[in-house]
Amino acid sequence: MEEKMSSKELEDLYFMKAFGRDLKIVKGSGSYVWDENGKKYLDCVAGIAVCVTGHCNPEVVDAICNQAKELIHISNLYYVPNQGELAKKVVEMTGIKGARAFFSNSGAEANDGAIKLARIRTGRKNFVAFVDGFHGRTLGSLAVTHKPAIREPFDPLEPKCTFVRYGDLNALEKAVDENTAGVFVEGIQGEAGIVPAPEGFYEGVRKICDEKGALMICDEVQSGMGRTGKWFYYQHTGITPDIVSIAKGIASGLPMGAIVARDGLTFNPGEHGSTFAGGPILCAAALTTIKIIEENLPLISEKGKMFMDGLSAYSPRGMGLMIGIPAGDEERSHKIAEICRKNGVLVNCASHATIRIVPPLTISKEEIKEAVSVIDGAFKETA
């Protein structure tokens, strides 16, 4: 009888080598996951800020299963169950009056949609984004993503994009001109190592965009859906963006994204589309996800403070449950993550030797204490 091959053996033979990994997760419940050997981990990665309602949240599972029994897929040639209800809810969450939503299958695809919308409605072709910013890996979203290691091998890219130092309003003002369709900006640079915007930065970006006729495009893919203690980071600042891109936590792990654009910015028939985007099951999961986030939203800042206070010796930065802790160098950051994993807590190494903590928004205070204890121990062990 032929011996069954392991996941590693199968992937070595048949899967493109795009990822580096050595752990197989087979089960999840709440804030915890289990590997193939039965070991339990407190998950402070949460699918990289995706599993906001915890793993296999029963309400989300019920919403998915109930909808699957009625209709799994129907083309956007027809009205899609749950799609209009979700669009209304997401627009209301953004607080942008007269706005409209369009759904996608990922954050990168949402940012691609934002690029298309900005170009066609302004008549301009170029963009400005920021050093260390990350907006996706599709060709369009990669063009406005700074990281040279992942962008430059695919040059030349469109649209043309100028990168300026994050937080530098003088450089931004010089970079934005009559050919700039939009400025892509993250309120907290997630992939860069949880780097919050300097005070007054968002207000300055808004002012420059208004003066130059460019659109302010807020990438809330990682910082949105309640992660910072409000629905979206920009709501901490008082500004209103022209376009918001959303994904990650919107459907509790199902592949979904969205853009919301202000009044006057909309796709006309034939200008954009998607076969799978905004399908019945995805929208059902998203509506239930939003309900659960609403119940947890008032507690997120307090939970984040527990992490911050418990790990204050290591200069954590961030907001809500989007936290980064500088480890000093790459070797130490990977060692800290390895020790945490050995002791039953999953954390993630982001850029610039940062330990990233983005747990489910439903994580309990007791679970936070457990995570803090293990992470603190790892930092002490590697000091």
From TrEMBL:
The keyword Nuclease does not apply. Its cofactor is pyridoxal 5'-phosphate. Keywords: Amino-acid biosynthesis, Aminotransferase, Pyridoxal phosphate, Transferase. Pathway: Amino-acid biosynthesis. The keyword Transferase applies. SUPFAM superfamilies: PLP-dependent transferases. CDD domains: OAT_like. It holds the Pfam family Aminotran_3. One of its GO terms (molecular function) is transaminase activity. GO terms for biological process: L-arginine biosynthetic process. Belongs to the class-III pyridoxal-phosphate-dependent aminotransferase family. This is Acetylornithine/succinylornithine family transaminase. It comes from Methanomicrobium antiquum. The lineage of its organism: Archaea, Methanobacteriati, Methanobacteriota, Stenosarchaea group, Methanomicrobia.
